[in-house]
């Protein structure tokens, strides 16, 4: 089962859509196919830049696209639920068992509350997921008066770039944050745990993770 087949798989996309709908009702930011595609592409870019083989890149793309399907069951422990769902779906394909387990493990370990990088595929997934911070993840139907802290910290990001420097072995998230919308304190309240998880994931790749906000190094 290839990444292109995964993206067209009706069952997988229905789980993503239901999870995103559920999270919308709970007030969360966008977790749609757009987010999943961005995570898949970013995870692939990270491994490609570090010289990993096409096979590992393909597994990272699949894990990236499927990583949030567990939200269809419940937000709490969605990573573990997602891993179980992914295992059942991929069992029905011709995928090699070791590849299936690698993908299931990456999905199951992508949440900062219970997981962490266990191999290069999971490391790339974690960094790709946690660095998808952008204004258009805030749901358009929400008025600014209804924004919670998660909405504010995403809406406040006016520009974001993830840079991979092979020579220096660094992965840097560069953000421009409108502090009139969200204070730096609020940003760190939400994202510090996620950024520390990225640091551990970068270490798995033999690199250092850096966070730059408004031109200043903060991690």
UniProtKB/TrEMBL annotation:
Q: Which Pfam families match?
A: HD
Q: Which CDD domains match?
A: HDc
Q: Which part of the chain is the HD/PDEase domain?
A: 28-143
Domain of life according to the entry: Bacteria
* PANTHER family per record: METAL-DEPENDENT PHOSPHOHYDROLASE, HD SUPERFAMILY-RELATED
Q: What is this protein called?
A: HD domain-containing protein
Source organism = Lachnospira eligens
Q: What is the lineage of its organism?
A: Bacteria, Bacillati, Bacillota, Clostridia, Lachnospirales
